[in-house]
């Protein structure tokens, strides 16, 4: 083979390799990135295999209803309502909440029930109010929206509308932080509530963990407790799970 033909063969070979690499880049890499993007926008990205799950528990149980930005409820949920200290909630958790507060009193801590059930309309007002405050601090509309969404769920994606979530604080912690702030957990009263919530069927819904914040879509809230039942709460606490991860684990076990 003369040198001219040899050079042509090498050139065509390099062109073929370049075409193959180009095809791989344009076909396989975007698909991979698309998969990553999809996973990053859906909370808990993969169902962790859970073992020794509580018996008789299903992801369809009323006390495990999952509401977040990826699982919205655009219509009001129908349930019997009851009140504790003027705060409305699902009647099925009233006694558990009273027992929780009673336990705190027995340990020497007075509590303040701040919030419970919120309708979708009320959630709209809460979101709008927080965003308005952020705008008043000089944020752009985009910045105000983002900061608001980090601490307040969009209407339809707040589990307060389930009637199963309550904002509960140690009274001394609430007196110092009446607008509810994460630093309330520096008070012994709030620490007690966090440590003993599972004994009464509640979990700290939005933990102080970056990975778990991605799963819930909400920053740490030391005051937000969610009723899931004693068996579920104790399992979630023992295995350091979010409600999202627990529900996904139950589904992975065909429950």
Automatic annotation (TrEMBL):
Q: Any idea where the D-alanyl-D-alanine carboxypeptidase-like core domain is? A: 88-229
Specify one Pfam family.
VanY
What Gene3D superfamilies does the record tag this protein with?
3.30.1380.10
Matching entries from CDD domains are given as: LD-carboxypeptidase (cd14852)
The record's PANTHER family line, in alphabetical order, gives:
D-ALANYL-D-ALANINE CARBOXYPEPTIDASE, PEPTIDOGLYCAN L-ALANYL-D-GLUTAMATE ENDOPEPTIDASE CWLK
Which protein is depicted?
M15 family metallopeptidase
């Amino acid at each position: 083979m003369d040198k001219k033909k040899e050079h042509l063969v090498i050139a065509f070979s390099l062109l073929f390799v370049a075409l193959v690499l180009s095809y791989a880049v344009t076909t396989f890499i975007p698909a991979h990135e698309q998969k990553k993007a999809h996973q990053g926008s859906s909370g808990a990205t993969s169902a962790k295999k859970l073992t020794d799950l509580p018996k008789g528990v299903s992801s369809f149980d009323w006390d495990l209803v999952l509401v977040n930005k990826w699982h919205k409820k655009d219509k009001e949920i129908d349930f019997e309502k009851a009140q504790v200290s003027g705060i409305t909630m699902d009647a099925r958790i009233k006694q558990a909440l009273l027992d929780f507060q009673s336990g705190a009193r027995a340990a020497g801590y007075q509590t303040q029930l701040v919030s419970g059930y919120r309708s979708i309309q009320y959630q709209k007002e809460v979101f709008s109010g927080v965003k308005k405050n952020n705008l008043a601090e000089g944020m752009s509309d985009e910045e105000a929206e983002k900061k608001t969404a980090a601490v307040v769920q969009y209407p339809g994606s707040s589990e307060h509308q389930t009637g199963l979530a309550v904002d509960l604080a140690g009274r001394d912690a609430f007196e110092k932080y009446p607008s509810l702030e994460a630093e309330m957990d520096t008070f012994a009263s709030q620490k007690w509530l966090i440590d003993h919530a599972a004994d009464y069927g509640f979990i700290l819904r939005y933990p102080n963990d970056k990975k778990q914040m991605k799963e819930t879509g909400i920053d740490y809230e030391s005051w937000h407790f969610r009723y899931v039942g004693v068996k579920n709460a104790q399992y979630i606490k023992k295995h350091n799970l979010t409600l999202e991860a627990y529900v996904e684990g139950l589904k992975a076990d065909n429950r």
